[in-house]
Specification:
Elements: E1 4-9, E2 12-17, E3 22-25, E4 28-30, H1 35-50, H2 52-75, H3 82-95, E5 100-107, E6 112-118, H4 121-128, H5 137-150, E7 154-160, E8 169-175, H6 180-217, E9 222-225, E10 228-232, H7 239-252, E11 260-264, H8 274-289, E12 293-297, H9 301-309, E13 318-320, H10 323-332
Parallel strand pairs: 10-11, 11-12, 12-13
Antiparallel strand pairs: 1-2, 2-3, 3-4, 5-6, 6-8, 7-8, 9-10
């Protein structure tokens, strides 16, 4: 082959300049790729990196925007109407290996048409990829072309796909409010919603783990001396945590043969409610039913105020300022002391 070659096929010009490494199609630089190998690898790579849903939008958006450039170019040619432009474009694309596209039912007033596409390069790539559904680059590309030709946003619906065993892919085109920008924003919102849901799930799982950890660590039953156990109340108690504390305490008192239960209130949350006072009374009353006396220690001024303003009477329980005093008292009831 000569360093410079030129050929005209079907009225379209092809030219090669081997010295400069150029392929020229209709006086514009162009490139050639093998469909089932190089182009398939190109598509596969985009899908691998972006994911199927995002890559489909990439192909659709790219196809539409490239088609829009073509449509706007032909729309500016004064002596060519939409039907003639459609024939010129499809013939040009056929010569460039884009497959055979036939435009039918073109209605310039209604701005509708139907495209029959056979053996396109996108179909060949999708077939090589063993896809179950055809791509949307070419359907969107022709939507872009006719958006440019009609001067109105055109969208598409795939009626049938050659990949499903049909002779042609059939795509209907019509005016629509659907736009590429709208689709991009919709995908972004969907991805954002999915990410929020994912994070919420993680937070929920971690919250459950944290609650379980708090449940295991909070309010332990501590046997300090024979017959005496201490239960420190820590933080704030909601209904679930309160119920768990009562059950846990009552189940363990007999195992420790506890005569005295010392409730240490020092670690209670400063924001004390009437529910907390009720919890203290409930534990003490329940413990008495199994023969264990309750001693309260570490009552803060804040808790004292809540107790005095409530209708719950805790005066039947012995109260001391510190844990040490409470333990000494319990020992003294049995004639014992710490030496």
């Amino acid at each position: 082959m000569a360093a410079n070659s030129h050929i005209t096929v079907g009225g379209l010009e092809f030219e090669w300049d081997l010295e400069k490494g150029r392929f020229i199609f209709e006086r514009e630089d162009a490139v050639l790729f093998w469909i089932s190998s190089a182009m398939r690898t190109f598509f596969d790579t985009i899908e691998e990196i972006s994911g199927e849903e995002a890559s489909n939008l990439v192909f659709e958006t790219t196809g539409f925007r490239q088609g829009l450039v073509v449509g706007q170019y032909f729309e500016k040619i004064k002596d060519v109407d939409a039907a003639q432009a459609a024939e010129l474009i499809t013939n040009t694309y056929a010569s460039a290996g884009w497959g055979r596209t036939t435009i039918k039912d073109l209605d310039f007033e209604a701005k509708t048409l139907t495209a029959y596409i056979k053996d396109s390069w996108e179909y060949k790539i999708n077939k090589a990829q063993e896809k179950e559904h055809g791509g949307n680059y070419l359907p969107a590309h022709y939507a872009g072309i006719f958006t440019g030709l009609f001067g109105q946003n055109i969208w598409y619906e795939v009626v049938q796909d050659q990949l499903d065993g049909h002779e042609h892919s059939i795509i209907k085109y019509f005016p629509s409010d659907v736009t590429i920008s709208h689709n991009i924003h919709e995908l972004a919102r969907k991805k954002e919603a999915e990410e929020i849901l994912r994070l919420e799930t993680i937070v929920e799982e971690k919250t459950k783990e944290l609650k379980e950890l708090v449940r295991q660590l909070s309010s332990p039953i501590i046997p300090v001396l024979e017959g005496i156990v201490v239960v420190p109340l820590i933080g704030k108690y909601d209904e679930d945590r309160s119920e768990e504390l009562v059950v846990k305490t009552l189940n363990n008192l007999p195992a420790h043969k506890a005569n005295y239960l010392v409730l240490d209130l020092t670690g209670l949350d400063k924001d004390i409610s009437g529910h907390t006072v009720s919890l203290i009374e409930k534990i003490g009353s329940a413990a008495s039913l199994i023969g264990t006396e309750t001693i309260l220690v570490g009552i803060s001024p804040e808790l004292g105020m809540v107790i005095s303003q409530s209708t719950i009477n805790l005066s039947r329980f012995d109260c001391f300022q510190t844990l040490q005093h409470g333990i000494y008292f319990a020992l003294a009831q049995h004639g014992r002391k710490i030496v």
